[in-house]
Structures are given as structure tokens and as C-alpha cells.
Amino acid sequence: MSFGIFVINLPEAVERRQRVRAHLVALGLDANVVEAVRGSRLSEDERALVADDARSVERYGRVLTPGELGCAMSHVRAYEEFLGSRHDFALILEDDAVLLPDAADLLASARMSAWLECAEPRLLLMTPIRAFLARGAVPFAAGYRLVKVRRAWEGYGYLVNRAAADAMRRINSPAWLSADDWVAYRRLGSIELCGLDPFCIGYLDTAPSQLEYDRRRVETASGRSKSLKARVEKWQRQIMDAVYYRPVFGLLHHRMPKGWPDRRE
Known about the structure:
Elements lengths: L2 E7 L4 H13 L5 E4 L8 H7 L2 H8 L5 H18 L5 E6 L2 E3 L3 H6 L1 H7 L5 E4 L5 E3 L4 E2 L5 E7 L5 E5 H10 L10 H8 L2 E6 L3 E3 L6 H13 L5 H22 L1 E2 L13
Parallel strand pairs: 1-2, 1-3, 5-10
Antiparallel strand pairs: 3-9, 4-11, 5-9, 6-8, 6-12, 7-8, 8-10
């Protein structure tokens, strides 16, 4: 099996593009650069064509911010470029990603290829996981464990097979989910969502996320971050965590240390 690396990058973000390319070359990896979408440059008429704001309101209690919309469209663009290639699976990166040195061996491992060589959609998070199950974790490759994901977001480093990329492309065209709403993708696309413990992709402390800033600003201004439906789902999830998942499976989480990758968990 062959894998491709697709790095999402705005055309004007030259320094970021040069940095991530040099970083990957140092690891013996090559990448395709995917031209990201600047959501703030879309007119109202253009947004109406590429976004489903009504579904976003139903999911989040608000529309996607311009940054969220551009990010979601950029990830879909990465899926399309991957599906148009001959690769069997893809590593999707954002341009602030920083990989550990052993990530290259992990990507090339037979165990990785075997897991992704599947007709069913599979997605593997290589970044920090907000909650995963300790019970049922299995040895994977290069000293990592494969774990089941309970909660996660952040989309700056993950692997998909062709079935998963196609499912997410269809689900989010037009865009209504944030690019890293992994729980929704899993449910809507019947995607097997797993992660690595420990994680092997972090991000640059020196590359602040405008998307996250805008998202928090909008949520603070609106006084709520989720629709009623999403709030109920969150409460149900918290109850299930407390009475079932934590005592039965054990819930663990990762933290992104400052000074990554010199400092690790």
C-alpha cells in the first residue's frame, strides 16, 4: 500500500509552507500542498453555495465562523485531492503540525498498512485525544497502542483510508460541520475512529490559531456554544462517562505539552 501526505496551507502563508516542508523533508517525507480556502473572502452569495448554515445552527446553535468554514472546505479539498491520487491512504496535515521522528517509521509500518487496508471507512488520529478508552487498547506499531476514541477534536494530523475520505467529503459538502467534529463524522459516516497512545503529532506554540480565537469569540458573544440538541447530547455523554465508560473502560486523555516536541507527556 502507498500513502500520500497532504498539507493544508493558505497561499499567502509562505513561511508556514516552507517550515512544514523542511520539517517533513528532514524526516524523509514528501508532501502535496493543498491550497486552503480563506473563508473570510467568500461573499454572501458564494457562502450560500458552499455552506449549509441551517444544519450548522441545528448542530452548534450558530453558523460556522468564516475560519471554520474555510477550514472545513480545505479539508474536503484535501480529501478530493487524495481520492484523485493513486494512494491507498493519506496523512492530512495542517501547516503548523510537528511530527515526532518515529512518525515516518510508523507510517511505513506493515501494521499501519494492514489496519488501513480495509473496505470500511477508518480514521486514525495521531494528535492528542480528549478522551479515550484504556480498556481494549492494543499494541500497534513502533511502541504505540491503538485506542478507541471517546471524544476528540483538532484536525492538524490524522490518517484516513479512501472509504473514510469519501464519506467525509460527501457528509460535509456543502460544509456544515467543523473539520474536526470527529464524533459527528463517526456517527454519520459509520467511520471507525481510533487514535494513537501516545500521540506523535503536535503543533507549533509559535503558530497561534486564528480559527480557535474566532470560534471562542463567537461562542462567548452568543452566550452559548451549542444548540439545545447538542447540549442534550453533551449531558448524555457526560452521564455515560460517569456511570459507564469511566468505571468500566477507564477514560484517559492526552495533554499537549508546551515546548513540543522537545518536551513530551
